[in-house]
Amino acid sequence: MEENITAGVARTSVLIAGGRALATNSFINEQLKISEKLDESLIPYYENVYKKEPFYSNVITEKVASFDPYAYFFCCTKESTEILLDQTEEFLNMIPTKFARNKLVKYLFSKKGLEFSTIEESRKYCIEQCTSIQTFSIVYMDSLTIRIALRNILIDDFFMKNIKDTSTQQYVILGAGLDTRALRMPFAEGSTVWEVDFQQTFQFKEMVLNKAVKVIPPISKAKLHRVASNVLETKQWISSFGETGFDKTKPTVWLLEGLVMYLTDEEIAMLCQEISMISASGSSIVIQTLGKQGFMSKIMSSLVPTPLRDEFKSASDKPCNYISKCGFTNNIENLTENDLCKRYHFDFARSFTSMDCDSVIGVGFKP
């Protein structure tokens, strides 16, 4: 199974799950500040996860904290810890001299109340003395945690608006990775969620979730269909959709999160066009891209470990252009991370890793 979660896109999904796990623990922490008595729906997670590993992000407040009870379970492996530490080491090794590198190590860990002078010391501590989620809480950079929290709450809010609108009962998550919305969101009976991703990603995902749902029961009542396919093999997954009840005459919500940076502009345009062709009036789409201007984009070739380094094929500061060209022309929004900070009234202290359009979300509706 190690090969499955450390190869290609699936490894990125594990890292994102780590951020969502920290956001979820932060959510519980914020709820406990408000009231010692948690909502009944949160008790299974509180009793089985949070009480055992109450590690959270200090920078996430109640304004952007969100609840993904299954993200934690993807982080509870030796491999997930190593994935995070490998990325951290790659990042630190960008610093040209060992002296400067070790000064940064000391600074980053001192912010978490730990004293280390070298990468080797910190890695040894995390592997030998920490659980996986504790390692995530120590090593995850604040800016990355906020990036994940912001896009997570925006997309969750978008889904919730559609869930409350009973006219929308079809949801598609392309490049689903370790997304758990099909289980954790309150989809009503009669709704259907389709996920599309590679078979090896689904193998790991199902292995983990089959155990996790016994601890945290899903609240969704939707049917769930996982379709193993390359998202660019559109005829394959569209055919599978038809066989499992997809109705082209009814509105559909489409989500492309953490996907299109692996595709060329031409492939994105083709994919969006295929989506449009099977989307009825009233359908909507959310697409997340890597921006061209942000700090992370500028250093991506050095930050991301092989084999991901060469897999990012596109970046866009205006994902709304992709969707408007294929017919999703109503109520278009193009939201940078700074836009989301303003929307959720969240203040984030700027630093050398400050948010300046590293991730951009486009939203549009089909007339």
UniProtKB/TrEMBL annotation:
Highest taxon listed in the record's lineage: Eukaryota
Could you tell me the keywords of this UniProt record? Methyltransferase, Transferase
Biological-process GO terms, alphabetical: methylation
Signal peptide start-end: none
Q: Name one Pfam family in it.
A: LCM
Which InterPro entries does the entry mention?
A: Ppm1/Ppm2/Tcmp, SAM-dependent_MTases_sf, SAM_mthyl_Trfase_ML2640-like
GO molecular function per UniProt: methyltransferase activity
Q: Which PANTHER family match?
A: S-ADENOSYL-L-METHIONINE-DEPENDENT METHYLTRANSFERASE YKTD-RELATED, S-ADENOSYL-L-METHIONINE-DEPENDENT METHYLTRANSFERASES SUPERFAMILY PROTEIN
The entry assigns this protein to a family as follows: Belongs to the UPF0677 family.
Q: What is this protein called?
A: S-adenosyl-L-methionine-dependent methyltransferase
Higher taxonomy: Eukaryota, Amoebozoa, Evosea, Eumycetozoa, Dictyostelia
